[in-house]
Every structure is written in structure tokens, then in C-alpha cells.
Design the sequence.
């Protein structure tokens, strides 16, 4: 059972425009959400996070929005740059278990066209 | 080094052989995770170590998989009698206790079982 879902396997955006990556989750006990970026042949790197008590967190060109009632979060990148082309993973923590493990989605491949 | 270090970076092994993958977490990080990513899949949680607590092994796919963490630092993931479906990139991550929920990944060990 996939608790964190990224339903779009890929997204193509023009340079300078906004990229919107979406993530849905099923477990209402999740209390913290993160986005990671992964380039080929590298490990994922942390990008931005949000606590469940907030609905928005912004860091430069990156903004994460959380809609708890819809169990949905999104990552906005504006303006998009070619260097943003990577796989983006959504992750959630706090599934009610005893550990701090993160549960990841399947990822969305973002391609920013020059 | 400053980051999570994994070895080997690449490993090709014959079906049925045992393999060991090593992870050296960031100095001072008490939490250590193993994930894997199979081709076209998301990040699959395998096992989690936190200090001296019993590890969370809930993600290990079979009893051919085991992991140890010696002295609260270096960890070894062992796969016995490897199968072709074990081919994946195995990612180690660590996080500091009490510093929130961001985890930091290594570059991964790419395992190919032929």
C-alpha cells in the first residue's frame, strides 16, 4: 500500500516558467513532509520541508504548500532553471510507528527546457 | 569526509553470491537508514538504526537481508544468496538526533546481480 503517491512520473517545463510537483498521502498521522532532489548517479539531497502545523514554507525559488484536509502537498519552483532538471521525491514522516523513518513517493522527473 | 560515505560505489555479482555494502555516516549522527531504489521505482525503506535502540527492520524484503551497525557508527548491509531482483541502488542516510527530520544521503552503492 503506497502511503505517499506522486502520480506524475514526469513533467516538462520551459525555463523561466513555474514548475508544480504534486504529492498525495493517505496517512493522516504524518507530521512532517520533505522534498528531495536527485540527480543521476547521485544520492538524494534535501530541498525543503514543512511541518503539518503549517500550510506554506518558502525558501528562495522553492515553496512547498500543504493542504491537510486534502492530504496533498505541492512543490512550486519559480522561475524554473535548466539546473533544476532532476527527479523530485516527496517524503513523509510520522506514520504512527516508533521510528523516524521517512516514507518516499516514487518520484517525478522534472525536465526544464532552455 | 563531511558526508555519508558508501562503498563499494558499484558492485557486479553472480546470482547466489553474498554481498556486503558499507556505510559510514556523518560524524556525530546517531540515526542511520538504509533505503534502496530499484529501476523505475521510488525509495524503499529497508532498515533504521537509532542509537542503542533495537533497529526497525520492518522494511527488509526477506531473511536474506540483514544489517549491522557497529559501535553506533559504521553499518554493513548484507545480502545473502543474491537474486536478480536484488539489483538496485542501495542508499544509506544519516541524521543527527534531535535535529529535526532531515536525513542526509550518501551517493549509493549500485548493485547488479547477473
Sequence:
Amino acid at each position: 500500500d503506497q502511503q505517499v503517491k506522486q502520480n506524475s512520473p514526469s513533467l516538462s517545463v520551459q525555463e523561466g516558467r513555474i514548475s508544480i510537483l504534486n504529492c498525495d498521502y493517505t496517512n493522516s498521522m504524518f507530521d512532517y513532509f520533505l522534498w528531495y532532489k536527485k540527480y543521476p548517479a547521485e544520492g538524494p539531497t534535501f530541498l525543503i520541508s514543512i511541518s503539518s502545523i503549517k500550510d506554506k514554507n518558502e525558501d528562495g525559488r522553492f515553496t512547498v504548500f500543504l493542504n491537510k484536509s486534502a492530504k496533498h502537498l505541492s512543490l512550486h519552483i519559480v522561475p524554473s532553471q535548466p539546473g533544476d532538471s532532476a527527479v523530485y521525491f516527496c517524503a513523509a514522516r510520522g506514520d504512527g510507528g516508533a521510528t523516524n523513518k521517512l516514507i518516499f513517493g516514487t518520484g517525478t522527473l522534472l525536465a526544464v527546457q532552455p | 569526509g563531511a558526508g555519508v560515505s558508501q562503498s563499494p560505489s558499484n558492485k557486479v555479482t553472480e546470482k547466489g553470491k553474498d554481498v556486503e555494502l558499507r556505510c559510514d555516516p556523518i560524524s556525530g549522527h546517531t540515526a542511520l537508514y538504509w533505503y534502496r531504489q530499484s529501476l523505475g521505482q521510488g525509495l524503499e525503506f529497508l532498515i533504521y538504526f537509532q542509537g542503542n535502540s533495537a533497529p526497525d527492520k520492518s522494511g527488509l524484503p526477506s531473511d536474506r537481508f540483514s544489517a549491522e551497525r557497529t559501535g553506533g557508527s559504521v553499518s554493513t548491509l548484507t545480502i545473502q544468496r543474491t537474486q536478480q531482483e536484488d539489483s538496485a541502488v542501495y542508499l544509506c542516510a544519516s541524521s543527527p538526533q534531535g535535529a529535526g527530520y532531515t536525513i542526509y544521503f550518501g551517493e549509493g552503492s549500485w548493485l547488479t546481480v547477473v
